[in-house]
Amino acid sequence: MHADLQALLVACVVTMMLCVGLDFPLASWRSLLRNPLPLWVGLAAQNLVVPLVGFTVALLFHDQSEIALGIVLIVAAPGGPIANAIVHFAGARIDISVSLTVINALVSLVTVPLIASAGFALLAEENTAIRLPVAETLAHIAFIIVMPIVSGFAIQRIAGRSVERISRWARAGTGIMMALILVIVCIANAQVLIAHFSQMVPAALTLCLAMLACAHLFSRLSRLAPDARFAVANESSVHNVPLALILAEDIIHRPELAAMIAVYAQSIGVLTLAWALIYRRRLTPAK
Questions:
Q1: 136 Cβ partners below 8 Å, 6+ apart?
Q2: Residue 167 burial by CB count (10 A; 0-12/13-18/19+): exposed, middle or buried?
Q3: Per the domain annotation, does 287 fall within a domain?
Q4: How far is CA 152 from the centre of its chain?
Q5: N or C: which end of the chain has fewer CB within 10 A?
Q6: What's the total number of domains in the chain?
Q7: Residue 2, pLDDT score
Q8: Which band of pLDDT confidence, cut at 50, 70 and 90, is reported for residue 212?
Q9: Are 269 and 126 a contacting pair, CB within 8 Å?
Q10: Which range of residues forms the domain containing residue 64?
């Protein structure tokens, strides 16, 4: 990725995570603490169920290292704010979705290196063996994920009565940043996408459908309500694409993995939006 586009991508991610911190529903967070089962189920789905699903899919495509290693980076990245927009559009539990985005972002200092290293070790062969530099990874995650969210919390506390106005602006800012990120990803990887799109679509669709199905089944077995199941399944399956791209290009210096990540971003967007439309239509008569 060109240096200017890379800098713009990082700036968009930082701004987006700041907006997530500003829009974090503190009142809903308190109620979730009194009934934390959806959060525990969501964390388990994100950091245990989905990585296992991703590793299984990666093993199916182990002979294509660009696909297999790209999948590892995707499932290692925490849930992204795009899931919040999908859940909000569907009319499901946005408080669960945003809370899981924030918590997964904060614990990503631990989970990202562990999940990525486990996946690389599982796929380790002479031509795919790769190591994730932990210190550099932690520095990037702290700068582009953790610090902006914590700053958003601090601004909320200082803002006092103005927090509702700030929250509305933050919600709009999140949408704008998500759109910019998707445009940047497509522009930066246009040539690779054109060359490898058809080759990587089967793997991307397999990964997306498997993550959504398994996360939803896990939530159902945990006896969550339908609106909570929708939030957990989307949050567990819609990962932070910009972070995965940064891991591929800046941390492990394998830019060829960006193609799989970009194809996944398009695939998961189409699938979750379609599911949200179906869920929304089913919800309307009930309301």
A1: 251
A2: middle
A3: no
A4: 19
A5: C
A6: 1
A7: 64
A8: very high
A9: no
A10: 3-281
